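Colleagues,

For the teaching module next term, I've prepared a clean inverse folding example: a structure given as tokens, and then the sequence designed for it. I'd like students to try predicting residues themselves before seeing the answer, so please don't circulate the second half yet.
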């Protein structure tokens, strides 16, 4: 079996997170600078031997500069001391046709915890330029406080400002490396 390397196509991928604000609305954020490298046996993603995702914390965007600055501060991601977050896949477990659970270790702010995300594989195609591409949707949920993002505030009425649960969503297109 031949080892196949895949890299993210950032023009056709997006990495998002969603968090409740005041427990009544959801704020969406994303990373604009990230990388995904995958190594498989042949083109079989169920036999992935390496899956590594990194994101530059300074690239975080919630479409609000003041909030983004706060997220990069020591109250949250502490970008000055922890410039990247990293996920290293440890097991790609197919659950049904086209669906899987990806188990791995997520490191945020120097804290590493096991995380499992749901993966939907949409297939592999050759694009008009002769590149082999594979598409995935990834969904999961983590506790921000488990990773040291513990800043909290309560309104005068007793509402939590930022929820602990963070929902993760990614649309990923990988390109087979030649």
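(Answer key — instructors only)
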């Amino acid at each position: 079996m031949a080892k196949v390397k895949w890299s993210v196509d950032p023009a056709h991928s997006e990495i998002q997170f969603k968090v409740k604000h005041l427990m009544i609305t959801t704020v969406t954020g994303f990373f604009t600078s990230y990388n995904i490298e995958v190594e498989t046996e042949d083109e079989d993603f169920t036999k992935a031997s390496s899956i590594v995702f990194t994101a530059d914390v300074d690239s975080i965007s919630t479409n609000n500069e003041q909030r983004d600055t706060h997220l990069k501060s020591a109250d949250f991601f502490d970008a000055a001391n922890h410039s990247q977050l990293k996920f290293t896949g440890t097991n790609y477990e197919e659950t049904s046709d086209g669906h899987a659970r990806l188990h791995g270790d997520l490191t945020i702010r120097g804290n590493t915890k096991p995380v499992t995300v749901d993966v939907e594989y949409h297939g592999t195609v050759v694009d008009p330029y002769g590149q082999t591409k594979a598409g995935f949707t990834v969904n999961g949920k983590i506790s921000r406080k488990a990773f040291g993002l513990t800043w909290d505030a309560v309104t005068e009425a007793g509402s939590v400002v930022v929820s602990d649960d963070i929902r993760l969503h990614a649309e990923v297109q990988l390109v087979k490396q030649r």
